[in-house]
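idk why but the lab printer keeps eating my pages so im just putting this in chat instead. protein + pyridoxal-5'-phosphate:
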Amino acid sequence: MRYVSTRGTAPHLPFDEAMLTGLARDGGLYVPETIPTLGADQIAAMEGLPYEEVAAQVMQPFLGESFTPDELRGAIERAYAGFSHPARAPLVQLAPRHHLLELFHGPTLAFKDFAMQLIGQLFQIALARTGRRITIVGATSGDTGSAAIEAFRGLPNVEVFILYPHGRVSEVQRRQMTTPVESNVHALAIDGHFDDAQARLKDLFNDHAFRDEVGLAGVNSINWGRVLAQVVYYFTAAVSLGAPHRPVAFSVPTGNFGDILAGTVARRMGLPVARLIVATNQNDILHRALTTGEYRTTKVAPSISPSMDIQVSSNFERALFWAYGGDAAAVAQLMDELRSDGGFTISQGALQALREAYASGRASEDETLATIRDTFAATGELLCPHSAVGVKVAAEHLAPGLPMVTLATAHPAKFPDAVEKATGIRPPLPPHMADLMARPERITRVENDAEALKSLVRSRRSE
Ligand SMILES: *Cc1c(COP(=O)(O)O)cnc(C)c1O
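predcted complex ->
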């Protein structure tokens, strides 16, 4: 199993190297050369299995020789041992055909833990083999950063730098990043939006000399290892609702397109996913692109669902690559246009392929608050604002005989202000974080400038 870049000119890599690298050297994203499929019998036999067992079955075919089945199995067991729910990703019902997939029972209360805890384990195995020392630099709209810090804090041979947009993450999100005491953890508040943080991160990766000097590794959702870990819960959810005998639809609160891309992979592996719905907040570039064929960036409008306040949706590049039939030159050209003109037009053929793969919808701020309020009144479930965006858009796509699953991407206690505004109830943090608001913070401010960032990384690394 080899991995190729969506822009066609980076070296082909095995799974472990693609995972350690993150972004390809030509600026593209790694995708598997082919997507393995699972037979209907094998999918049916997943019914009732522990999450960890399904994870091993779904992921192993993508790993080639990179990790043995025993190594993978051990990594999966350790990754999910700290989750607070035995099902790991439990389903709860909201309405007769509508289910919520709770992905927030990991240590930092967002779905990012599913992938980050696992790649933390896989990184450790790979680094122990080579004795390599790496520098992880990540950009976050809030939840990736805390999940990455939780997964890599205190590890030897790893320095973790997390860039988050100053003043644009929730207080709980910020404190999860700024309160860990381990000296290998560096939370950096950048002046700008998430897109600025992500652009500076890409600048670092595209400086090959710097990249090699510090052993740069990426854990953003552009990392294929993360996408792969997220494929698993599409299988567990769909199988418990009757797949492969019954198709299932998913509504996915979307920002950087990582989570919904994992659903795309599940479908291509043979899971009967009837609909994949891109649910966006008021930053609706993806909904507009799928509706009009024009991918045009505008200014980010900060919202109550900050983890989706994104205009440049990195993983969409992988969806484009598949929609263009694997034409890496065409993708590279679109990405050049995005950089020079702030947008591009999707070809008719590719747009048709994307519309066959995805439906879409958006929720305004008022609609998001109303959904939190109405869902609580009807079911007693408290939704985080991101999950509420998914529930609102899912409700527009309910169809007879088709179970709908909305991904609940974060715990409501991570966004208590929005939840309280909608319902009057302030959801408490779980016991393991009860003192979060009292812990001392460590924050470094950094300019929105690649050179400033490089020198900061260099000096912190050598301390
Ligand atoms: C990251 C995140 C999203 C968006 O997921 P993508 O994979 O970036 O599309 C949605 N909700 C929450 C709570 C998140 O942390």
